[in-house]
Specification:
The structure is a single chain. Helix 3 packs across helix 11 and helix 9 packs across helix 10. It is built from twelve helices and five strands. The mean pLDDT is 94. A three-stranded parallel β-sheet has the order 1-2-3. By secondary structure, the chain is mainly alpha-helical. Bound molecules: adenosine-5'-diphosphate and sodium ion. The site of adenosine-5'-diphosphate has 19 residues, from helix 1. The site of sodium ion has 2 residues, from loops. It comes from Thermothelomyces thermophilus (strain ATCC 42464 / BCRC 31852 / DSM 1799) (Sporotrichum thermophile). Belongs to the class-I aminoacyl-tRNA synthetase family. Belongs to the universal ribosomal protein uS10 family.
Length: 313
């Protein structure tokens, strides 16, 4: 039995926000750093999926570079993990076509996005995703059992879902909504490239409530709870939010905000600097993509060989 194969993807949507960082990118880095030596890792910037929302070409071009720089700035290591653009591996589209012909259309049409092929192409055994993406994995697993059953093969592999243990980070403007790039207000989210001044300002303006003292009460005080949860996400001792809330009881909200702003700024300082360096070295970004593509393609071609043989192509 071979080692694990971990695959995950992220769309090139510009500079990631704190939710993307904590929910996905930092998690990928943790998986990379704790992986067994025989575990293979594939991290894809899924630019073909980004085409479903048409944008000016310059924007897509820039966003791809920004995401690549962000992943490297987070600490993903191109010598350990294949980091690549989905569109550079033609087999993604090829497998997607084949699966779309074999999957039941009723099930297909109920899905908003279709991401099974990306995962199955690498015969991934483990796929880290946020809670919100669980349904993609259910669908991928269903595709595998359909395909393998129909063609009496075992060439596709059912992936296991690794649900990110990270908490959902909420919008700074509306703590009942998740922090998202789709929010029209830029004040609602912290970007991983924000300066300490920008971070402090956004957190100072974060919506809380009219009670001035800190308590951790997610149901009744979601804005304050979100700030404490951000703090907990960065806590070197890994203290749970409830525990941090207790320890900060008596603090004023303004004081809590200062602490959170300081911690977030400190944590993002190195990432911001590395991001700046990578963005000013596009040759390096291309080199990493080239290296990642080579590794991804080798695996993708092997899988497609098996798939084609199984269906008679
Ligand atoms: P957005 O909501 O900004 O469009 P995406 O849906 O593109 O973000 O998600 C990209 C990755 O970031 C996914 O793995 C998702 O689970 C994670 N993610 C997005 N927003 C958050 C958030 N607010 N908190 C935690 N993780 C998040
Ligand atoms: Na989204």
């Amino acid at each position: 039995k071979g080692g694990k194969i971990i695959f995950s993807g992220i769309q090139p949507t510009g500079v990631p926000h704190l939710g993307n960082y904590l929910g996905a990118m930092r998690e990928w880095k943790r998986l990379q750093d704790t992986a067994e030596p025989d575990t293979k890792l594939f991290f894809s910037i899924v630019d073909l999926h980004a085409l479903t929302i048409p944008r000016p070409r310059e924007e897509l071009f820039e966003n791809r570079l920004k995401m690549m720089a962000s992943l490297l700035a987070t600490g993903l290591n191109p010598n350990r993990a294949a980091i690549f653009f989905q569109s550079s591996v033609g087999e993604h589209a090829e497998l997607q076509w084949i699966l779309s012909c074999t999957a039941s259309m009723g099930y297909l049409s109920r899905m908003t996005q279709w991401k099974a092929a990306d995962i199955l192409l690498y015969r991934a055994t483990h796929v880290p995703v946020g809670e919100d993406q669980r349904q993609h994995l259910e669908f991928a697993r269903e595709c595998v059992s359909n395909f393998n059953h129909t063609y009496k093969t075992n060439c596709l592999v059912q992936p296991e879902t690794l649900i990110s243990p990270a908490r959902r980070i909420m919008s700074l403007s509306n703590p009942l909504q998740k922090m998202s790039k789709s929010d029209p207000s830029p004040k609602s989210r912290i970007l991983i490239t924000d300066t300490p001044e920008e971070i402090a300002k956004k957190i100072r303006h974060a919506v809380t409530d009219s009670t001035d003292k800190v308590t951790y009460d997610p149901a009744n005080r979601p804005g304050v709870a979100n700030l404490i949860e951000i703090l907990s996400s960065f806590d070197p001792q890994g203290r749970a939010p409830a525990r941090l809330g207790e320890q900060m009881e008596g603090y004023k909200i303004a004081e809590l905000k200062q602490v959170v702003a300081q911690v977030v700024s400190d944590e993002l300082a190195e990432i911001r600097e590395r991001y700046r360096q990578y963005m000013s070295d596009q040759e390096k970004l291309k080199e990493v993509a080239f290296q990642g593509t080579a590794a991804a393609r080798a695996t993708a071609r092997t899988t497609m060989g098996h798939v084609k043989r199984a269906i008679g192509l």
